[in-house]
Amino acid sequence: MAPVDPKAVLEGRIPGRPPIGLIVGLTATSLCALVALGATALYGGAGFWNGLILAVLPIPLLIALMLGLDRLEPEPPRTLAFSFMWGAGVAVLGALVLNTVGMVYVTVPIFGEAEGHVVSAVVGAPVIEETLKGAVLFGLLWFRRNEIDGVADGLIYAGMVGLGFAMVENVTYYMRAFEEGGAHQLGAVFVLRGVVSPLSHPLFTSMTGLGVAYAATHRHGRLIVPLLGLFGAMLLHGLWNGAATFGLGGLAVVYVLDFFVLLVLIVLVAVERHGTVRLIERYLPMYAGTGLVTPQDVQMLRSMASRRYARRWARMVGGAGAARAMADYQLAATEIALLHKRVERGVADPQWFTARRDSLLHLMALARQAFLRTPPPTAPPWGPSGFVPPHGPYGL
């Protein structure tokens, strides 16, 4: 029997080398990012390099915060990377071209120089940029619907797109600040965009992410809800851009609004995580007859803290390989619960459900065998478990 690739099973893909589509997609998006950065560098001089460093500097921290939303059921890293590069490449380059064309040939000729720039910033840019950023989310909905299991997934993909876009866009803002006011103005703009409001673009695009997540997990509203989400993204973006025309008061209002939106999104993720725990409690016990799960194992799967405790125990008794097996078991069990959620909502093809469920159960069995081949010297701390022989030395 060919060896099983746990990552491929968990991600629901065919194991082996990266698909040619992913390679082509990452290549194309990277080239777009390079072209956009190259066009900026032509006019930047030393300011470009200062801007590039400051734009990249907060990105690792921001990505870490995004991934923190995704710990219960992580998304495929390759899809997250593609989403980030779409924002940094295709969306930025497309916005650079379309915003310029729209301002030169539409808004300025119609409204005049001053008002044309305002209309372009408040209306044109939000429509163009959110459409370009949202395109990859609609693509995921069309081609990778089964990878989006709920609100957190829609938000993480939207966040990655927004971070990629903001990173490259900020290079231009920092470069201009350095050229116009030197280091002092550059520092002020960095504090505003990189410290105070680094999540503005992810917040805008999160509205599209919410709409796409709803469409991926419900039978009704598959067209209208994502479009409403896209409109919400444009509206938030337009309010942000328009706030500058009202001075500090306008900026204060829009900062409060975005902070409120952020809090609402955090609450939605927390509520969904609680719902996923309830799904685990509801559906995992039906697999007790397989020997892969006990009531105590279900309790272990209920919280991030108990899962970490289980992985630490696995590492203590079996090393890194056992810890990986425990992590695979936990993620496969969570995927099975989410699989049943799709069946509940009528969005799971029966044949796909059966094949997916069986592959996840097989992965859970392999993870369990990693412990049964060499029985652990200590019992699991959470009680009777499928990770020790049924008649082992602990009376389990």
Name its key features.
single chain, mainly alpha, 13 helices, 77% helix, 0% strand, disordered C terminus
What does this structure look like?
The chain has 396 residues and is mostly helical. The longest helix has 46 residues.
Helix/strand/pairing category: mainly alpha
Please count the beta strands (DSSP E, at least 2 residues each): 0
Mean pLDDT across all residues, rounded?
Answer: 90
Q: Hey, roughly how much beta strand do the residues contain?
A: under 5%
- Helix content bin: over 70%
So how many helices?
13
Distance between the termini: 31 Å
Radius of gyration: 24 Å
Low-confidence segments, given as residue ranges, are 392-396
Question: How many domains make up the coordinates?
Answer: 2
Sheet having the most strands = none
Query: What is the molecular shape?
Result: elongated
Strand/helix succession: HHHHHHHHHHHHH
